[in-house]
Amino acid sequence: MRYELYYWTGIQGRGEFVRLALEDAGADYLDVARKRGDKAIMNYLDGMHDGALPFAPPFLKAGRLVIAQTGTILAYLGPRLGLVPGGEAAEFHAQQLQQTIGDVVMEAHDTHHPIAASQYYEEQRAPARKRAKVFREERLPKFLLYFESVIERGNGRQALSRHSYVDLSLFQLVSGLDYAFPYAMQRMRGRIPRLRALAERVADRPNIAAYLQSARRVAFNEQGIFRHYRALDPAS
What we know:
Blueprint lengths: L2 E4 L8 H10 L4 E3 H5 L2 H7 L13 E4 L2 E4 L1 H11 L7 H25 L12 H29 L11 H16 L1 H7 L4 H12 L1 H7 L24
Helix pairs in contact: 1-4, 1-7, 4-5, 5-6, 5-7, 7-8, 7-9
């Protein structure tokens, strides 16, 4: 099957979690908006196509299916791309971990947009500084130490019993946090050795390494979820 991925051009965003799974598996897929522009996404959001009506991208077209929400897309792709261990328990565990990753992503986003996504960061600087401080000091350690314990309780190398889409998403999470909060992440480095090692192994996987060096990998920037603002990540 040839999959069609729909996500905004110019940013990694939530679409990158799906893209990494497709790239790692060597799946045949079309990154639709990058070929046809963002209008192709709006046609779906405006209800101009058959199938389920997505609220927002990312969404995936697989045959006649239209599947939205990052975690749901990955839960669909995981068994089909060999990116989740077999069995109902493993699939549910993977979904649970992916949803928790989604929670971190949302909280990271809300550090620079704590009031409203419709307002510019510059319009909410003061609340953003307060929100980011709580994120750096409380929420970030809690989430990362949780994932460190997940790996430790497993086989010490991966989130599940073997490589899965959760490992790919953890790599993307660590990469995004390194970009947005380099000082906070440096302070956490010694506390999450297994998570760090997992991210490095994912980056070295042949298909992922090739993807990261390609033009298909859009650089992190201040339009996406993970944004670097000095005021939100002071050196000390």
